[in-house]
């Protein structure tokens, strides 16, 4: 699948990657960027100026120095400048992404165009599924485009119900009392591809009492706009979300447009030819890493550690306490569909936490959950192996999904 080493810099396909400026989006984008780089692509990785500064503070100036064929660029996000070492205010960030960022991104594209022949012409844009101004930019520039949906496929289907929630008068929730009177347990049997889903299992913004909730409407629009792309990449594998992916392909994103399931990306990177040695120095962590915990962890017995983390969905047994965004949907699937999780209630007390940890670590249900997690882990590894579907999908994406765009370079 790799490009010839005899290819000159000018002949390289040039991919511009545009993640939403939050750590959980930047990380998978960096994994994808390194894989494309290993396939011979010139990479331009676009951060917001705020995250660009965070990378410099965390990792030093070398973090954004890049390589001759892997460069970092930054665009303003339209928000007041801040040195706070955290993701900016989510509602303000969502509003800015939707209403401000297209123009500075187009100015960056013009800068890249005027840098020829030092840089190969931009041939494709891969933008976040919730940064859909990237689709508009690609259309204006006449280059190919793919959306990268970094969350779960079931999360996307959840967001795609937001229009229907408004149409049916379900959104907004009529009052605070409805949040605790059983209303959220109402089954939503009209959603294709999602079985046994309740209102409270949809992404958290669906249960807002504010008719003008900024994030609800941002994601309502972005999820629909994501479907305008010619291709969507998912960081999942087919067996894991089979029913949901089949529904997306049939009802939301039919052929000839393509869906590429290429996950889990971190495993795919291990299975494929190793990324070029020099790219290993390129990182995406916006917080300073502390590796000391690894020494402590190595001294613990197998299966004796509870890892408390915000927002991670992997094929390991999980205790779910959903709080934000599509965590509610992921929780429902982890516990009811994938069989790898145990849920705690929103108003959980100390004893319930202790009980569910005890059950997960040493109870009979915990044994079943752990066994199922091991099965999924095996299937995930098989999917990214050379005979697996995620491995072949990545090859199809490179050869037919974005390499083809080299035929029509940016004018």
UniProtKB/TrEMBL annotation:
It comes from the Eukaryota. One of its GO terms (molecular function) is quercetin 3-O-glucosyltransferase activity. Keywords: Transferase. It holds the Pfam family Glyco_transf_N. Residues 16-142 form the Glycosyltransferase N-terminal domain. InterPro entries: Glyco_transf_N, UDP_glucos_trans. CDD domains: GT1_Gtf-like. Belongs to the UDP-glycosyltransferase family. This is Glycosyltransferase N-terminal domain-containing protein. It comes from Linum tenue. The lineage of its organism: Eukaryota, Viridiplantae, Streptophyta, Embryophyta, Tracheophyta.
